[in-house]
Design goal:
The chain is mostly beta strands. It has one helix at residues 229-233, and strands spanning 2-7, 10-21, 30-42, 52-66, 79-93, 97-113, 121-138, 141-156, 160-176, 180-191, 199-211, 214-221.
Amino acid sequence: GRTGWQKGNLYNSLSFAGGRSDGGVPNSDWKKGQVYLQGCYALSRSVAADKFRLFWQFGYSGKSYGANTFYSGSSNDQFESNDRILANVQMEIGRRLHLRPSLYWIRTYDDYQWHRGTPTNSHHSDVYGVRLNSWFQWAIGRTALGAELRQENIVSTSLGNHNRTNLSLNLEHNVLLSKWTLSMGLSAVMNTGVDKRFRFYPGVDVAYRPSDDWKILLSYNMGLRVPSYTDLYYSSPDIS
């Protein structure tokens, strides 16, 4: 279901859903539910053209299911439940110079059972941070700058208790011509789970459109994926 309403320059919408199944084979039952609220406030009724806008999002989702041989064939009565809560508040400011600051928080609960009814791994994790993106258009294209500070924490019966901080800075410039598009960027990333120094990752994308039906793209990019806590610390109970 979904409903939406407006009062003056304030907009909101609320959606929700749910379902359940007994499963087609033993221990494949599941049930789930979710609710999601999003809204916007603008200084005028013309939201798209306003120089100040405030957005918000709040959500919850939950699911539990019999994971019959899902993670391993050695156990046909595995079980898992997941719950997630999220919140995000974001502003958009300016017309020539666009600023987009935001705050966010995500909490996740996970309960995994190797044999249903026998707790194996339970944890909750938090990811929260602040982000600022900005961009402006000028004579030689569009330039974007961004920064994000993110904190990740986990408390787990099998993965342990850990926390790490990620700081990233981004610079990008785009040149748009009639047939050519050039995009150049540079990211600087520091993660305390790796070490406490910045690493730099460049990227270049070049696109050429000989006609409206074709586009030729050449790109080179470098990036970093920090291992998840599961990658680093999980040990499977499957000993077969």
